[in-house]
Amino acid sequence: MPTFPNNIKTPVENWKTGSRYYIVRAGDAWNTPKHQREIVDICNQPAVYRLFHDALAGKPYLMEKASGFLHWAEEGWKNQTHFVLFAVTEDGAIAAACDIKTNNLDGGEVGYWSGEQHSGIMTNTVCVVSDLAWQAGYKSLFARVLKKNWRSANVLERAGFVKDTTKSLADEKTDWFILSASLRSAGRQEP
Questions:
Q1: At what angle do helices 33-43 and 63-79 cross, to 10 degrees?
Q2: What is the pLDDT along the chain (191 residues), one digit of tens a residue?
Q3: Rounded CA gap, 15 and 44, in Å?
Q4: Which of the listed residues 16, 35, 37, 190 has the most CB atoms within 10 Å of its CB?
Q5: Nearest CA-CA partner of 114 in 170, 47, 54
């Protein structure tokens, strides 16, 4: 099992603006109408919504979905099955999420999203989450990225992930490609 610290509050910088954010554990403590609204607003932005479009059958991402996501995040930490972290502003607003979707130390899948108004935070967020994962005992991480989503692929590559053509060809999701990182190959900061 991964061994994450109980109290995570790791600073991270937006490389475009220099603004400070903090990486924190997600979950029920964040399940307030204000934070649900922040998640809804971000998840309905076109670049993020495409992650949910098919599952939501084209319908908007609603408050109930945000509340369910926060409860699911808390259950993951409680049961040690998956681990959702937020990048939050200095005043505590949710700016981005990054999660490790499994407790499999040999290969944890990473997923993430970020609000467009926080452009410049995602690579450093992935770097911090990767460092936390290595410290928790993960040996390898990977991410699936839509082939047309070059911005997301660039985030991962700047964070030290590399395209894995073998896994990409073997992946059942033909519109995706895989980027992988081994222990200590990830964690680079933005230029």
A1: 110
A2: 999 998 999 999 999 999 999 999 998 889 999 999 999 999 999 999 998 999 999 999 999 999 999 999 999 999 999 999 999 999 999 999 999 999 999 989 999 999 999 999 999 999 999 999 999 999 989 888 877 788 888 898 898 888 776 665 556 554 555 657 665 454 443 33
A3: 24
A4: 35
A5: 47
Query: What gap in Å lies between CA 67 and CA 70, rounded to an integer?
Result: 5
- Burial category of 184 from C-beta neighbours within 10 Å (exposed 0-12, middle 13-18, buried 19 and up): exposed
CB neighbourhood size of 4 (10 A): 18
For 38-50, b/e burial (b = at least 16 CB within 10 A) is bbbbbbeeeebbe
